[in-house]
Automatic annotation (TrEMBL):
It comes from Xanthobacter autotrophicus. The keyword Lyase applies. Pfam families: MaoC_dehydratas. One of its GO terms (cellular component) is fatty acid synthase complex. InterPro entries: Fatty_acid_synthase, HotDog_dom_sf, MaoC-like_dom, UPF0336/Enoyl-CoA_hydratase. Keywords: Lyase. The keyword Lyase applies. GO terms for biological process: fatty acid biosynthetic process. One of its GO terms (molecular function) is fatty acid synthase activity. This is MaoC family dehydratase.
Amino acid sequence: MFLELQNLYFEDLTLGRIERMSKTVSSSDIVGFAELTGDRNPIHLSQHFAAKTPFGGRIAHGLYTASLISAVLGTRLPGPGAIYISQTLNFRAPVRIDDTVDVEVKVVELIPERFRARLSCVCSVKGEVVLDGEALVKVPSSGVQKVASA
């Protein structure tokens, strides 16, 4: 899954602008994330172990779900050249194999003097929020400030 790149400059952003993506989580996604990060917690990798937990089965890494937010930030809103400053994350519910995670990123504040944007980030499965938070990103400038019309 690769999102089409969209280059946005700070001057292109408006309050309320939204970008979305969806990703269905596979077992191979979870295994690949474990290999990449070294987080081999059996709750993610072993059905036998995970069945004995309150979740009753394997779940995706929370940071895997969070990484889907990063995909939107780095490719769509604001896109290439954006630099993460900070991210808050609130893990609300587990994500399971075969869940489709819907990610929504929305511009909630623009800080022109620093070319930064504060973004609301929400991940949901079947309408239930599984993760939410806010990102602060530095956004490339086109070097041309838009002039407000009278």
